């Protein structure tokens, strides 16, 4: 995409009243009516409401024609240039580099825009996610790094959040093996700060940072939960190192447990470290195994299971082709 197209998408996501569902209506119009994002800003009022019949009424009553034209373009252009100067790329859902796995798994709930910084080739590659508790002990963090390094050596890109504990050690395990890693942020990319431990490795070349949130948005608990679905949707499999129960004694949802449940709902294989490995078995690990997650002891177990899943898929494809030929 050219700079004009990127800026038009940036203008779009800054339009008052335009939320995820109305953004998806815009995307559908682009896809089905063979027009460009720039064309939308050139429509007169009659053509605008003819194209977007839902806008201006009902649940889309806040999305009005004038909102597309009462923009402070100078201010928006300055903030857009700031993103460019930070080497942040805007990836709209219709861009050919947008992760195919996200569109396949999240479908209509796919973020309309991703803000990315780093190695963009990692948007569409062989991903495995590793997630777990912020407060994991040293033994769990050692296992995390070893598993991440082992999988990176097998050519997998390691995906995780950016929290302390398991997330950070998953990224570092990949980087220590001279592998690659994707960091999915729970806040706007303008708030990205590169952790000191990353600087000891070739992170500029081997890391991709992704945010689905507006660049200026700060961390919020709901952002962390929304982020989990992107972590899952990017991945061929999800590995749970340690997880608390689905909800703690105060009723708060475990982010790790939520990521695992999202994965199971998307039919993404979930691997959980065996509770027998720990002096105090993590309650969430026990519960997730009972829900259908695959119990594993180490990285080799994961590779064995993945190979079997791939072989089973090939066999099913062959059976389907034979059936079609009969």
Overview of the molecule:
It is a single chain. The protein has helices spanning about 5-15, 20-35, 35-40, 45-50, 75-85, 100-105, 140-155, 165-175, 205, 220-235, 255-265, 285-290, 300-325; strands spanning about 90, 115-120, 125-130, 155-160, 180-185, 205-210, 240, 270-275, 295. The model has no long low-confidence stretch (mean pLDDT about 90). β3, α7 (about 140-155) and β4 (about 155-160) form a beta-alpha-beta unit. With about 325 residues, the chain is an alpha/beta fold. Strands 1-2-6-5-4-3-7-8-9 form a nine-stranded mixed β-sheet, sandwiched between helices. α7 runs parallel beside α8 and α10 (about 220-235) runs parallel beside α11. It is built from 13 helices and nine strands.
Based on the model shown, name its key terms:
alpha/beta; 9-stranded mixed beta sheet
Lay out the secondary structure.
Elements: H1 3-13, H2 20-33, H3 37-40, H4 45-51, H5 73-85, E1 89-92, H6 100-106, E2 113-118, E3 127-131, H7 138-153, E4 157-160, H8 166-176, E5 181-184, H9 203-206, E6 207-211, H10 221-233, E7 238-240, H11 255-265, E8 270-273, H12 283-290, E9 294-296, H13 299-325
Parallel strand pairs: 3-4, 3-7, 4-5, 5-6, 7-8, 8-9
Antiparallel strand pairs: 1-2, 2-6
Helix pairs in contact: 7-8, 10-11
